[in-house]
Amino acid sequence: MISTSNLGMSFGGQKLFEDVNIKFTPGNCYGLIGANGAGKSTFLKILSGEIEAQTGDVIITPGQRLSTLKQDHYAHEEDQVLMTVLMGNKILYNLMIEKDAIYAKPDFSDADGIKVSELEEKFTELGGWEAEPEAANILAGLGLGTEYLEKKMKELNGGEKVKVLLAQAIFGTPDILLLDEPTNDLDIASIQWLENFIMNYKNTVIVVSHDRHFLNKVCTHIADIDFRKINTFVGNYDFWRKSSELAMHLRGNENKKMEEKAKELKAFIARFSANASKSSQATSRQKQLDKLQLHDLPVSTRKYPYVHFVQSREAGKEVLKVDGLCKTIDGVKLLDNLSFSVNKEDKIVILGNDVAKTTLFQILMGEMEPDAGSYTWGVTITKDYFPADNSKYFKSGEYDIVNWLRQYSEDQHDTFLRGFLGKMLFSGEDVFKKTNVLSGGEKVRCMFAKMMLSGANALVLDGPTSHLDLESITAVNDGLIDYKGTLIFTSHDHEFIQTIANRIIEIDKKLVYDKYITYDEYLEAKLS
């Protein structure tokens, strides 16, 4: 078990959290959530001992091993993949190195024999003889077969390195597992393997993720950083969000009788419990849920931006025709005779290589010329673009936010512009921030404000949830569900794709899959 006592941390005079007293118990997975800058990664680093809290203590049950997902992808460049994974259990790995060094001595003595015998005994107790097969099995589950075991880390690409570091973190069944954004750069099959691994894990897991589907699948509890406190709540992310909204609604309605509140709460919990019945921990979760009272439910200070896209004019039947597009960059063929048509009200997710998808979008938006082939937008189409890299919109620092947005607005009045920015959570003096000092999330919200003013009937979005917190992701998600125009987008967010897309297109240079189908149906067919 891992717990904290009166933990507190500040940065730059701003308190992230204070007087945090919390316990994380075995058999549970805790999703650590909070707005951007709330201190999620900082809290994980404090738990792991990487940084020290300014006040309070972290208490770990004596003898228990804690493991973290490392973020330095270049820390093991000269190490073999298998050895890098085994390093996840430092005690076992050091034993291996020590006994191998003794065996390698040219003048092996009786004393060496006694020492190595002791080491072998410890090695066996720690499951050393099963270590390499276990590491290989984990890597295989993440899609890295035996051909990778003896490769050096420097031979792997970025996504493969992430998988090895994830395998390193979970190797040897640590008692406490800390995972910061573990699904980043993972493919579909690897994410599903990780979900199943965590759901069957018997020890303690604490995870930070912006992937709502992942949090809903693996979490038994939510640990919420808000009000400079960290509080835990039973259930997954959706239950936390819905119960938070319900609690605010119930508390805000002073005229309702307590009996009516209790009845509504009880009905809600019953629905949640029924949905959670498939979980191996359903029985214990049910008992905890049954004990919940109104004052136990979360209330958050977080705000959701208002994201709503309205077409200035309705599109005609012809939206977009792509015919034989080809593109090679730096000797790598990214698009090869790619053809497809887009119909009115299609909401298409493009799956495949990230560089190829971005290249396709840049061609369709006139920012890059194809080597061959053509594309034609319908005459009634007005389009707007959310690029994967929006830096060119904000480089100069010539504008503050309100005057930056003024460039894209027909209504030039300050009252309108500031009101519009307020919906995107820029209030008061925030609107006078220079655009070249904005955070990644603030730039994204500015881009969405610009796009909402465009009135476009076709939107092209390349990774629109990057840099956003869960609240903003949810708002963008809901806004695009309601959008009546045509949408072409990329995303790695399962929930985002499942709830928005009505058509799946997969490209591997050419068109390899095109079907009107949900994302879950696509995955079922793909992975079956």
Span from first to last CA?
38 Å
What is the makeup of the main sheet? 6 strands, mixed
Total beta strand runs? 18
As a whole number of angstroms, the C-alpha radius of gyration is 26 Å
Quaternary structure annotation: single chain
**How would you sum up the global shape?**
globular
% residues in beta strands:
15-25%
CATH superfamily of the largest domain: P-loop containing nucleotide triphosphate hydrolases
At the third CATH level, what is the topology name of the largest domain?
Rossmann fold
Counted up, domains total: 3
Number of helices: 18
Low-confidence stretches: 277-282
CATH class of the largest domain: Alpha Beta
* Class by alpha and beta content: alpha/beta
Q: What percent of residues adopt helix (DSSP H or I)?
A: 25-40%
Mean pLDDT across residues: 90
CATH architecture of the largest domain: 3-Layer(aba) Sandwich
Describe the strand arrangement of the main beta sheet, using strand numbers: 5-6-7-3-8-9
Summarize the topology.
Elements: E1 2-11, E2 14-24, E3 29-33, H1 40-48, E4 55-60, E5 66-68, H2 81-86, H3 90-103, H4 110-125, H5 131-141, H6 158-170, E6 176-180, H7 188-199, E7 204-208, H8 212-218, E8 221-226, E9 229-234, H9 237-252, H10 258-275, H11 282-290, E10 318-329, E11 332-343, E12 347-352, H12 354-364, E13 372-377, E14 383-386, H13 401-406, H14 414-423, H15 440-454, E15 458-462, H16 470-482, E16 486-490, H17 494-500, E17 503-508, E18 510-515, H18 519-527
Parallel strand pairs: 3-7, 3-8, 5-6, 6-7, 12-16, 12-17, 14-15, 15-16
Antiparallel strand pairs: 1-2, 1-4, 8-9, 10-11, 10-13, 17-18
Helix pairs in contact: 3-4, 9-10
